[in-house]
Amino acid sequence: MRVLVAMSGGVDSSVAAARMVDAGHDVVGVHLALSSAPGTLRTGSRGCCSKEDAGDARRVADVLGIPFYVWDFADRFKEDVIDDFVDSYARGETPNPCVRCNERIKFSALASRALALGFDALATGHYARLSEGRLRRAVDTDKDQSYVLAVLTADQLAHAMFPIGDTPKARIRHEAAQRGLAVAQKADSHDICFIPSGDTQAFLGARIGVRRGSVVDSSGAVLAEHDGVHGFTIGQRKGLGIAGPGPDGRPRYVTGIDAATATVQVGDVADLDVHTLYGEAPVFTSGVAPEGPLECEVQVRAHGGITGAVAESRGGELVVELRSPLRGVAPGQTAVLYRPDPAGDEVLGSATIRAAH
After folding, report:
1. What mean pLDDT do residues 223-238 have?
2. How far is CA 222 from CA 71, 155, 263, in A?
3. In sequence order, what are the residues at sequence separation of 6 or more whose Cβ sits closer than 8 angstroms to the Cβ of residue 181?
4. Which UniProt keywords apply (predicted)?
5. Is 351 within 8 Å of 279 (Cβ atoms)?
6. How far is residue 121 from each of residues 22, 25, 145, 199, 257, measured CA to CA in Å?
7. What pLDDT is stored for residue 191 in this prediction?
8. For 334-343, how does the pLDDT look when each residue is reduced to its tens digit (9 = 90+)?
């Protein structure tokens, strides 16, 4: 098979490329340039896709003896990931940019170009597994990335390969060292790749500006003023700008955000409990929406927020009734459905949360 490997310059995608070569495939490596100023996208372990990363990926490709290219996706990344991220926060949502990057860049724009150029598959260093076309959790549950891949369609999964999903991270690093790859001990990237400073609020504030509004309690009483709803997320406890806890002495949390009126509502922790999720743009890994109620487990964050549920597709929307309540669920997050068997590792589908009650 002709396989294009997305090489970020990290240890995971490097070992993925090496394994594809070992498997006898015709392999080409590609690094995505996602910024018009790539030098600004890495500060230590923060950020990615910098000139440093491109150089690391090229050196790995040289060791493996495979062709290597850098493809410029900066404009597409800005429009489909960064601008979407900013716009979502301006609407009072809490998006996951890694989900959007996989959905719109790696497995849409990149995969489409790969197929058009005659490649049979796109391989990445994601921690996930594929079995008979079905997406499953990685063996290393601490590194599992099936959640951020659950937006992929059946057709996209048919042309995807995840060579390292069957191996724990520690063994991947050991394998990289044995292969003589200089990235064996390179720090993992974390936080949001296009905000290398780690200061999300400053990043958003510089792009959205000041949109003043009020922080209110459940009765509507104004407790404080704020400079924009983008400074808040559902479940937030600190940085609310209010004087101390509620009248009962308990901490207060953000329980609602109305971007239209620039109103942020706070309340007790119990007010964060949600029992029903409403998701838009559902995707099912089988390629077909289930008929009738579907028993499942639902996960609402990349690493946490899991409970049993019953999901049903209704008029193009996914409605998920939770067996037990979840807290801190926000519009913009992704609800991912897993098969509720003993393994609990098969992804059934996903949707972007529109509302939660």
Report:
1. 96
2. 51, 50, 10
3. 11, 14, 15, 18, 60, 63
4. ATP-binding, Cytoplasm, Disulfide bond, Nucleotide-binding, RNA-binding, Transferase, tRNA processing, tRNA-binding
5. yes
6. 16, 10, 19, 36, 42
7. 75
8. 999 999 988 7
Instruction: Please give the full DSSP string across 88-137, using - where no structure is assigned.
Output: HHHTT----HHHHIIIIIIIIIIHHHHHHTT-SEEE---SEEEETTEEEE
- Residue 98's pLDDT band (cuts 50, 70, 90): very high
pTM > 0.85: yes
Q: Active-site positions?
A: 101, 193
Q: Which segments are annotated as binding site?
A: 6-13, 32, 125
List pLDDT tens digits, range 170-202: 999 999 999 999 999 998 877 788 988 889 999
Q: What are phi and psi of 9, to 5 degrees?
A: 100, 0
Which structural domains are found in the chain, ordered by start?
A: 2-178 (3.40.50.620), 210-267 (2.30.30), 272-356 (2.40.30.10)
Q: In the 8-state DSSP scheme, what is residue 208?
A: H
248, 251, 252, 255 alpha-carbon torsion, rounded to 10°: -110
* More confident: 225 or 46: 225
Cβ 353 vs Cβ 116: under 8 Å: no
CA distance linking residue 139 with residue 192, whole number of Å: 24
Cα–Cα dist 17/14, whole Å:
5
* pLDDT of res. 331: 97
Supply the DSSP symbol for 271: G
Annotated binding residues for ATP, written as ranges, equal 6-13, 32, 125
Q: What is the pLDDT of residue 52?
A: 87
